[in-house]
């Protein structure tokens, strides 16, 4: 999927990203005092439509700072909310994703009014759905809570004109096969939110060919009770956007094989290790190399701010990427077996030698970009 139109920067002053830095010291900024009254007013505006709310009662002009991201790239002013601070965590908004509904059997519902069939769990395809005032108010409150209590390794950028749709960049935690991977989720809160759960889709699955986790399907579907995407729906209106993101993040474990309910931690240790190898390889191939290449060539589906976050963090994680690949070069050409399905993985074999070359090439390109931007600012 590619975006056909350039990103729209018309709402640069809105709060559009929430995140934290990669470095050990965590920096949390205060919430602007003027932001809270705007949120409170939204709860009293149930009679207004979304367009009016978005224009007069939204985030515009009210800034809440979250933890910072280390700045390696000399970022342009239009990519960040302010040039007064060294690094900010909000950026410009972007247009909707193109329509690309999943067609897996048994996972669709019919929209008779439009004659189209959508996956009930998939935010892609619901671009024209109108947000309710109550949904908007609740989402605003949830996002404000995230500015006060940000999640480690999570960055958020909202979609233009619709605060109920947003992009989430989740960085794989250290000590796991996902370490340093950039996992891009599209989230939409339906009009019934919080009575109904958000719709969530993992966007970077290499054209629906890669499953990073027993709970992350290659279609992009995230299988969680609280999302209503498992056999035991468990959503509660007491849950929030933060609750959903924490639950998704908890799936990025050091032994993802045991996320499958059929296996316990005492079962098949050799299969657990084999599955982690597959996940690590595909994380570096798809969630690192493919993701950074897309940022550099302009084909990334992430908003500009999240692209900058990825480029910055790529340089910070680079040594770990290279070390992980170099330690497994001897596996190049061997079968990539997925033990969850007892078959050779679709990708065929491990490509560590190719990954090493790709990583080094990408490092050079990012360094060249940093140098070019520095020269432009002089």
From TrEMBL:
<dbReference type="GO" id="GO:0005634">
    <property type="term" value="C:nucleus"/>
</dbReference>
<dbReference type="InterPro" id="IPR000608">
    <property type="entry name" value="UBC"/>
</dbReference>
<dbReference type="InterPro" id="IPR016135">
    <property type="entry name" value="UBQ-conjugating_enzyme/RWD"/>
</dbReference>
<keyword id="KW-0808">Transferase</keyword>
<dbReference type="GO" id="GO:0004869">
    <property type="term" value="F:cysteine-type endopeptidase inhibitor activity"/>
</dbReference>
<dbReference type="GO" id="GO:0061631">
    <property type="term" value="F:ubiquitin conjugating enzyme activity"/>
</dbReference>
<keyword id="KW-0539">Nucleus</keyword>
<dbReference type="GO" id="GO:0006915">
    <property type="term" value="P:apoptotic process"/>
</dbReference>
<protein>
    <recommendedName>
        <fullName>Ubiquitin-conjugating enzyme E2 Z</fullName>
        <ecNumber>2.3.2.23</ecNumber>
    </recommendedName>
</protein>
<dbReference type="GO" id="GO:0005737">
    <property type="term" value="C:cytoplasm"/>
</dbReference>
<keyword id="KW-0963">Cytoplasm</keyword>
<dbReference type="Pfam" id="PF00179">
    <property type="entry name" value="UQ_con"/>
</dbReference>
<keyword id="KW-0833">Ubl conjugation pathway</keyword>
<keyword id="KW-0067">ATP-binding</keyword>
<feature type="domain" description="UBC core">
    <location>
        <begin position="134"/>
        <end position="300"/>
    </location>
</feature>
<dbReference type="GO" id="GO:0005524">
    <property type="term" value="F:ATP binding"/>
</dbReference>
<dbReference type="InterPro" id="IPR013788">
    <property type="entry name" value="Hemocyanin/hexamerin"/>
</dbReference>
<keyword id="KW-0547">Nucleotide-binding</keyword>
<keyword id="KW-0053">Apoptosis</keyword>
<dbReference type="GO" id="GO:0043066">
    <property type="term" value="P:negative regulation of apoptotic process"/>
</dbReference>
């Amino acid at each position: 999927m590619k975006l056909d139109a350039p990103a729209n920067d018309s709402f640069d002053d809105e709060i559009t990203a929430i995140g934290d830095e990669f470095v050990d010291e965590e920096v949390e900024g205060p919430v602007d005092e003027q932001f809270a009254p705007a949120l409170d007013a939204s709860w009293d505006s149930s009679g207004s439509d979304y367009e009016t709310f978005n224009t007069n009662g939204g985030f515009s002009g009210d800034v809440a700072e979250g933890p910072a991201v280390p700045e390696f790239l000399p970022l342009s002013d239009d990519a960040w909310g302010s040039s007064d601070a060294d690094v900010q965590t909000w950026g410009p908004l972007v247009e909707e994703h193109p329509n690309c509904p999943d067609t897996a059997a048994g996972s669709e519902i019919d929209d008779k009014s439009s004659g189209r069939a959508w996956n009930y769990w998939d935010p892609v395809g619901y671009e024209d759905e109108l947000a309710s005032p109550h949904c908007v108010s609740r989402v605003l409150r949830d996002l404000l809570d995230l500015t006060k209590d940000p999640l480690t390794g999570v960055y958020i950028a909202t979609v233009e004109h619709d605060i109920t749709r947003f992009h989430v960049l989740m960085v794989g935690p250290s000590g796991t096969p996902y370490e340093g991977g950039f996992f891009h989720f599209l989230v939409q809160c339906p009009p019934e939110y919080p009575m109904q759960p958000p719709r969530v889709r993992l966007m970077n699955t290499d054209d629906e060919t890669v499953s990073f986790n027993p709970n992350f399907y290659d279609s992009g579907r995230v299988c969680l009770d609280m999302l209503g995407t498992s056999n035991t729906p468990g959503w509660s209106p007491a849950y929030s956007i933060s609750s959903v993101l924490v639950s998704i993040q908890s799936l990025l474990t050091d032994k993802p094989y045991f996320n499958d309910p059929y296996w316990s931690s005492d079962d098949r240790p050799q299969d657990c290790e084999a599955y982690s190898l597959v996940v690590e390889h595909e994380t570096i191939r798809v969630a690192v190399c493919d993701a950074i290449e897309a940022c550099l060539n302009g084909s990334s589906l992430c908003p500009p701010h999240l692209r900058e976050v990825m480029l910055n963090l790529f340089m910070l994680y680079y040594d770990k990427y290279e070390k992980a690949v170099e330690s497994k070069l001897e596996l190049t050409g061997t079968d990539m077996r997925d033990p969850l399905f007892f078959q050779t993985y679709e990708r065929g074999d491990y490509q560590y030698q190719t990954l090493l070359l790709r990583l080094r090439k990408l490092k050079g390109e990012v360094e060249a970009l940093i140098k070019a931007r520095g020269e432009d600012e002089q």
